[in-house]
Amino acid sequence: METTQQKESVSDAQTAQEKETREQEREQLLTRLYARSAALVDADSGRVLLGKEEHVMRPMASTTKIMTCILALEKGNPKDLVTASANAVAQPKVHLGMHEGEAFYLGDLLYSLMLESHNDSAVAIAEHLAGSVPQFARWMNEKAEEIGCTEAHFVTPNGLDGEDVGGVHSISAADLAKIMSYCVLRSPKAAEFLAITQMPAYSFSDAEGKGNFSCSNHNAFLQMMDGVISGKTGFTGDAGYCYVGALQSEDRTFVVALLACGWPNNKNYKWTDTRKLMEYGMAHYRYAEVWKIPELSKIPVENGVSQNGLFGKAAVEVEIKGKESPGKILVGDDDVAEEKTEVPEKLDAPVKSGTPVGQITYLLNGEKWGSCQAVVKETVRRRTFTWIAMKMCEMFYQFNF
User: CA nearest 225: which of 290, 146, 280, 188?
Assistant: First the structure.
């Protein structure tokens, strides 16, 4: 008969084998990607679930325009009149074909920007909002920093290759995904951003009603998988084909960012890579409550006044202040969640109610995910000679009277 110890040994071996198999699956998937840099990200937390050179900064071509668009939505008004400058008109193809001095409504130009990826529209928008392209680039970099990006440097609003004193126009796949996550979930203009990037086609005229302009959405991935909610393509000679897209499945939002995903004639590689990464995310990640609420025992208080009388030993209850745990997070098969409780074995009186005395740290795969404080629930006075004398007098009085 097989013993319990033998059963546990077999189970551990099977678990180890399954983990190794999953690791091989991940490695094979990453090896088969065409993109030089790729990131599969949980949009809610910004956590990179799977990555290939995801922190290497590379040119990002017209995926840049997601930043241009969200800044325009947050800082501008769709009814603003945008007048084309000589600089905007001079931008290379792909362009709307505007003429110097021609005016357009900002809201119309955002469709030109995101559906057809027009370079002249991007510059016109930037100059209208910030007064100049360099100033708009400063806004882009400030916004990237605000979002939490550390591997991004913007020089142009349209993604054409550029360089300034700060460096080359470039970003990492991880930070590009972080910006898209902000655009579709956290920006106060997320709904407007999604409405623009999901529009199949859009037509408009200039502000005077002259000329007719038509835009078609070039994000073919919108029709390739169920749940796709947004995306932006890009290409330059230095950047190659790039893509960033978002997909919602059940209560999960995944973002995939690809940089240097082939050069002509490899324009469809980005769709293949995106599908592989999205399918991997949906197959292996689910929301779960992975952290336990720690049970905190009473802490002895040396030289403290006890509720049990003169000779009782003082102890104080401890409670968690703030969130008891970070809540549900998106986790995979091999993610390891832990709680690290740091509370002293004893305290020294006096202790005031609400005083922090420790910390609970929540770890995911060894990295800090969140924390909360442990605080004392009640005040404990210090047991002094004066207090002892008073108590002894009280006892003497009660005993004699």
Answer: 280
Catalytic residue set: 62, 65, 117
Cβ neighbourhood burial of 375 (10 Å; 0-12, 13-18, 19+): middle
Binding residues for substrate: 232
**Tokens 């404990």, located at residue:** 380
pLDDT along the chain (401 residues), means of 10: 50 68 90 97 95 98 98 97 97 94 97 98 98 98 98 98 94 98 98 98 94 94 97 96 97 97 94 97 91 82 65 75 76 87 84 86 88 84 60 55 52
CATH number of the structural domain 25-284: 3.40.710.10
Grouping H, G, I as helix, E, B as strand and the rest as coil, residue 4 is: helix
Alpha-carbon distances of 265 from 5, 241, 260, 273, rounded to whole Å: 59, 10, 13, 16
Fold type of domain 299-400:
Peptidoglycan synthesis regulatory factor (PBP3), Domain 2 (2.60.410)
Residue ranges of the domains in the chain?
25-284, 299-400
Question: Known binding site: residues?
Answer: 232
pTM (2 decimals)?
A: 0.86
